[in-house]
Amino acid sequence: IWWERRSCVHGESVQNSSRSAMSIAALTCNYMRAQAKNVRIRKGWKKPPEGKLMVNVDASFADGMGSTGVVVKDSSGGFVAASTSFLQSVLDAPMAEAYALKEGLCLVNQIGCTNFILQSDCQEVIDIMKDGGFTTLAAAPILEVCYDLWRDLPLAIIEHCDREANQVAHELARQALEEKVSCIWVDSQPTFITPSIQLSKAH
After folding, report:
1. Of 12, 77, 156, 174, which cross-links 7 as Cys (Cβ 3.0–4.6 Å)?
2. What is the pTM of this model?
3. CB-CB contact of 176 with 61 (8 Å)
4. Is residue 74 a contact partner of residue 111, using CB atoms and an 8 Å limit?
């Protein structure tokens, strides 16, 4: 449009309105395609920075019962530790997710880690933690404990992740609910998550 105006001012020939409209449409289309490429978000598990551990937590909930899954990996994607916990009685899914967060914080404390990123795919729980742990949910007492544990860890980060990034923790939680068991693994991973661990190493 600017070039057409300039040509008109200087008495030069300009293209007809139909061709101008086509040019504008083409420019708009190209711009939108470029923008779409720029804002594309890569999904899946991402390795933490060197020196930090990545802790992924997830929960399962069904018929008033729940379970949690926690996996800890290093900056190369290698296995460090994992845990599962079967919950005999849980009121709702957010409560199960709150328990998963608590189990994650307890596991890193058990292995002596203070520098980590903890991820959950439950946005509601993450928002509550970032808001000081205050909530009217039934999970309030659990999240209060979680916040107290977290605030004593200045290097620890808690953030939201997509479901794809949380596959190993999800598999652990699912297995715990099916088998109704609670376990902890350190250094040696359970075989049923080996394919998922190998996949995360490749990212």
Report:
1. 12
2. 0.78
3. no
4. no
Note whether 57 and 69 are within 8 A (CB).
Answer: yes
Q: What is the pLDDT of residues 81-94, one digit of tens each?
A: 999 999 999 999 99
Q: For residues 174 and 60, is the Cβ–Cβ distance under 8 A?
A: yes
Q: How many helices (H) and strands (E) does the chain have?
A: 7, 6
What is the spatial distance between Cα 150 and Cα 182, in angstroms, rounded to a whole number? 23
Helices (H), 10-156: 17-38, 93-110, 123-130, 140-151
Residues 6+ apart with CB under 8 A from 97: 58, 59, 120, 122, 124, 125, 139
Phi, psi values for residue 63, rounded to 5°: 55, 40
The model's pLDDT over 153-190, given as tens digits with 9 standing for 90+, comes to 999 999 999 999 999 999 999 999 999 999 999 999 99
User: Which residue's entry shows tokens 């729980």?
Assistant: 125
Question: To the nearest 10°, the Cα dihedral for 193, 196, 202, 203?
Answer: -130
CA distance linking residue 90 with residue 65, whole number of Å? 5
Between the alpha carbon of residue 190 and those of residues 19, 174, 183, 184, 187, the distances in Å are 65, 14, 10, 9, 10
Q: Rounded to an integer, what distance in angstroms lies between the CA atom of residue 17 and that of residue 1?
A: 11
Neighbours of 96 (CB within 10 A): 27
